[in-house]
Amino acid sequence: MVFMSSQRDILLTTLNARYMHSAFGLRYLYANLDELQTKAEIVEFTIQERPLNIAETLLSYRPKIIGFSVYIWNVAEIHDTVALIKQIAPEITIVLGGPEVSHHPDLPAVCELADYVISGQGEISFRGLCQQVFEQALPTDKFIEGQPARLDELTLPYRFYDDEDIRNRLIYVEASRGCPFKCEFCLSALDKTANPFPLEPFLEEIDQLWQRGVRNFKFIDRTFNLKVSTSTRILAFFLERMSDDLYLHFELVPDNLPEKLKAVLKQFPPQSLQFEIGIQTFDPDIQTRISRKQNNDKTRDNIRWLREHTGAHLHTDLIFGLPGDTLENFADSFDQLVALKPHEIQLGILKRLRGAPLNRHNDPYDLRFNPLPPYNILSTNSVDFMTMQRVNRFARFWDMIANSGRFINSLPLILDDKPFARFMQLSDKLYDLAGQSYKIALRRLFEMVYVVMTEQLGLDENRVKAQLKLDYARAKIKGVPDYEKLPSLTKKAKAGVANKRQRQHA
Predict the structure, then answer these.
(1) Residue partners of 399: CB distance under 8 A and separation at least 6
(2) Which of 28, 198, 227, 412 makes a 20 to 30 Å CA pair with 336?
(3) Is 277 helix (H, G, I), strand (E, B) or coil?
(4) Using DSSP, how many helices (H) and how many strands (E) does the chain show?
(5) What sections of 11-74 are H helices per DSSP?
(6) Helix %, strand %, coil % of the chain (to 5)
(7) 394: phi then psi, degrees, rounded to nearest 5
(8) Fold classification of 170-358 (topology level)
C-alpha cells in the first residue's frame, strides 16, 4: 500500500519474505473493517529490514492498535519488532494473528509480548477486538478464537491492491478456502472441507483486476481442480481474455485430471500456465502413515499428459524427512519424478508446523526439529543429522543447477540412469570444492561442475565441454572457462576448505 505519514489508529502489518510478495490476509482484514476502515492503514515490510527501522516507521503513524500477521518465515523478526515497540510505546495494543500463533498452547515467544492473539480466521474477530479497544471494553481473555465467516458474507479485498502492487508485486487470489484432504504435514489437514466463494462475484472482482492491468494471477487455492465445473469456468474466463503476457498459477490435486479439464487446458498457449503439483512422496507406506490419499499411477499419468499435451510449466514438490523416510526410499521417489520430466522439482525439508497433525509422530519416529524458525527437521530414527545435512545441500545445489534452468544441456549427462545417486555425488563433491553451498559465483559454479563431471562422474571431457558451452552461452557470462587449467582447481579448493576448517577449530 502507499506509505502514509498521517496518523492512523489501526495499523495492519507484516514482514514479507520479499518485496514482490503481498500480504493477502492483511487486505482481507482491511476490507472487512467496515466503519473502522478510515482509521486503518496497511504497512508492509520485508524480513531483510531492520526491526528498529520497522518500529520507527510504525510508530510514526501514532497508532493505538497494531495487528501483526505472523508466519513461520517472519516470526523471529516480528518478535524483535514487537519487543522494541513494547519498550518504546507500551500503551499501544499489539494484536497477533496468522498460522504461527493460531495453536494455543503451542505458541512462539512473541505471544508473551502481545496484548491479544487471534487464532484462525480473523476478519470478524479483529474488527470486533478493535471496537472493544476503542470503547475500553477490553476482553478478559488474551487468546481469542477467530470467528469463522461465511464466504458469501465477506467483503472481497481485491480493490485494495494498489497501483504499486499491480506493477511490482504478485497478486494473490482465491476461489475457495480450505482443503478436504488430511495430509498430516499440512495445516490444511485441520480444515473440514474446501468451501468455494460465490463464483460470479469472484470473477467480477478478477475482471476488475484484469482491467486495471493485472496479468499475473497466483491462485492460492489448495485444490484448484477439486470441483472441475468451477475450474473449467475460471479457465474459460481467462481464455476469453488471453494475451501474450497473461500468466496463471494454480495448485493441482495430482491425481484428478478428467477429460473435461484436459480439453480446456489444451487451449492455453505455451508459457501461460504454471501448475504447482505436490507429490511429497511416492512411498505408499509413508502416504498411509501421514494420511495422504494419492493414486500414484494416476498421478504419474497426469504429469506425463501435462508435459506432453500442454505448454504449462510444471512445478512439483517432494518432502524429505517424513516419518519413516530413508535416503533410499526418498531416492526412489526422486528418480520416479525425474523420469516424468517436470520443469522443476522443489525439494522441501520437513518443517514442524504448530498444530499440524504430523506432530503425533514426533516420539514414535524420533523426529527432532530445529528449535528456531523455520523449525526444519534435523534427524529422525532412520535419518541421522549428517545425512540430513547432505540432503539440505543436495536441495540447494539442485536449485542452482536444475531448477535455475541454467544447465539444461548438461543436466541430462549428470543425471543419466540413476538421477538421485549421481546428483548426490555431484552435490557432495561441489561442497568439498567450495566449502559451502551458498554465495557461489556463477562462473565458479560452471568451473566446479566441469571438474566434478569429468573427475568424479567420469564423463568424457569433450562431451562435457560441448554441453557446458551451450549452457554457458545461455547464461551470458563474460569470458570462457579455461578448461585446461581447471584440474588444479581440485587441489586448490581442497586446500582452501582445509584452511577454513582449521580456522573454525582454532
Answers:
(1) none
(2) 227
(3) strand
(4) 18, 16
(5) 24-31, 51-59
(6) 45, 15, 40
(7) -55, -45
(8) pyruvate-formate lyase- activating enzyme (3.80.30)
Burial class of 452 by CB neighbour count within 10 A (0 to 12, 13 to 18, 19+):
buried
506 has pLDDT over 60: no
**H/E element, 145:** strand 143-145
Q: How far apart are CA 241 and CA 245, in angstroms?
A: 11
CA 190/CA 187 separation, integer angstroms? 6
CATH superfamily label, 10-149: Cobalamin-binding domain (3.40.50.280)
Cell of 11: 495499523
67 within 8 A of 126, measured Cβ to Cβ: yes
Q: How far apart are alpha carbons 137 and 486 in whole angstroms?
A: 73
Each residue's pLDDT tens digit, 295-351: 999 999 999 999 999 999 999 999 999 999 999 999 999 999 999 999 999 999 999
- What is the tens place of the pLDDT at every residue in 128-146? 999 999 999 999 999 999 9
212 φ/ψ angles, rounded to the nearest 5 degrees:
-80, -5
The domain segmentation of the chain, as residue ranges, is 10-149, 170-358, 407-506
Three-class SS state of 1 = coil
- Judged on CB neighbours under 10 Å (0-12, 13-18, 19+), 341 is exposed
